[in-house]
Each structure stands twice: as structure tokens, then as C-alpha cells.
Amino acid sequence: MIILGGYFPLRKRNRNKPSEDAYKVILNEHIEYYQKLDDGGKARFEKLVKEFLNVTHIEGVGTEITDVDRVMVASGAVIPIFGFPSWKYRNLTNVILYPDTFNHEYQFEGGDRNILGMVGSGYMNGQMLLSRAALVKGFSKSSGAENTAIHEFVHLLDMSDGATDGIPQNLMKHEYTIPWLKMIHHEMQRIEAGHSDINPYAVTNEAEFLAVASEYFFQKPGELKQHHPEIYEQLSRIFGQTPEK
Ligand SMILES: [Zn+2]
């Protein structure tokens, strides 16, 4: 069992950062979002990835991590804030990768593990935990509308105004709050009735709805726009991006 808080039984820290060329190779090979950018966008994305890795410690617990993992975590951070050039994740210092799913006691062995990612609060403030397997799957061709890293970073954005409530007040104009909540509740009913292709985990609460819908927005923007044009439009306003032109 791993107890976070007092003592971190972490592996020896590897502070070696990938070289600039290594970033590019990894981004080109693994990050579809990056592949679709024009040259100017690619250069800006590379810079943001580098800046994120300079200020965030990424460590493995029970697993050896690679530059590909680091660049994937950084991409999960950069994608949701790519519309806000000066955004900094002030509420994050460490990202801890577990080999696979874990449970609420941060155990990654044994039964009853179903957590893919988590953003810490209280004594865990500033920590993000991610399943390495889920991280890698999110950036693979077979991930569909799901991406655990993006999901957790959207929670951080939502949390940045003091409330993890599905309303990222720092990113959306006040007048859109009520329509957005109505849209969320309407879609939750459709999900519950089996009439929506949005991952049913979204009905957990408004914060999970935002995180799940955002995964869909960044992973499959064309499909989201087609199946849920209003949600697409609202997320496009929130993130200041139009991933599907
Ligand atoms: Zn969540």
C-alpha cells in the first residue's frame, strides 16, 4: 500500500528532460492533436509542453516512466488550455503515474481498483494521480472519445475558481452559466434514458459531465459537433478553440 502525504516512497527522481528534438519526435508520433496543427501552432505547442515539464515533476510509483509518458502528460495539460496562451496550472506540482488502475487508498495491486485518474484535494493538493496504462491508451488510436489525462486536467481548470462544479468560471462568461447547466441536466437525462453516446460516467455530477464531455470534444470533435452541436458550441466557447473547423 502506498500512503501519500507524509512519506513518498518514490523511485529515484529522474530529472532528465527530453531534448527539444525528442519532444518533436514524440509529439509527431503520438499526439494526434499536435499533428493537426499548422507550423505556428506546432511551435507554440512544443513551447508549452517544454514549459509544463520544466515546472511539473512527473514520477512513477511501481512503474518506470519514459519520455513518451512525460510528453503525453504534458500534452494532456496543454490541449485544454491551448486557447489561453498565458495559462499556468497554479494548483499542480506533481503528476504521479501508477502502473494501472488504483483505489481510494492509492493501492495499485489487488482487487477493487477502478480509478484511472484523480486530482488531489486537501493534503493531496497539487498532486495528480494517473494510471499510466490509461494515459497511454488515451493517446492511442483505439481510445475513441476517452482520454484520462485530458479529463483530469479539465478538473484542474474547473477547480481553479475554487469550486469543482462543472462551471469553469475563469473560462466562461457569467451569462452562459445557466444555459450551460440546463444543457448538462438535459443531456444527463438523455444519457440515463440510453439516448446519448456520451460516456455514462458523465451523469455522476456536473463536474464529471464537463470532464467527460471535454474528452469527447478534444478526441472526437467532428462527432461531437455532429451529434451534440450545442454542447460542442458551448465547449468551444469555454476552451476558446474550434478543434473541428
Ligand atoms: Zn473525473
List keywords for this structure.
single chain; globular; 4 strands; disordered N terminus; Cyclin A, domain 1; alpha/beta; four-stranded mixed beta sheet; 2 domains; binds zinc ion; 245 residues
CATH class category of the largest domain: Mainly Alpha
Distance between the termini: 47 Å
Say what oligomer this is. Answer: single chain
- Following the backbone from N to C, one meets helices and strands in this order, namely HHHEHEEEHHHHHH
* Uncertain residue ranges: 1-14
Supply the number of helical segments: 10
Q: Would you count the extended β strands for me? A: 4
Q: What Rg is obtained from the alpha carbons, in whole angstroms?
A: 17 Å
How would you name the CATH homologous superfamily of the largest domain?
Answer: Glucose-regulated metallo-peptidase M90, N-terminal domain
> What's the number of structural domains?
2
Name of the CATH architecture of the largest domain: Orthogonal Bundle
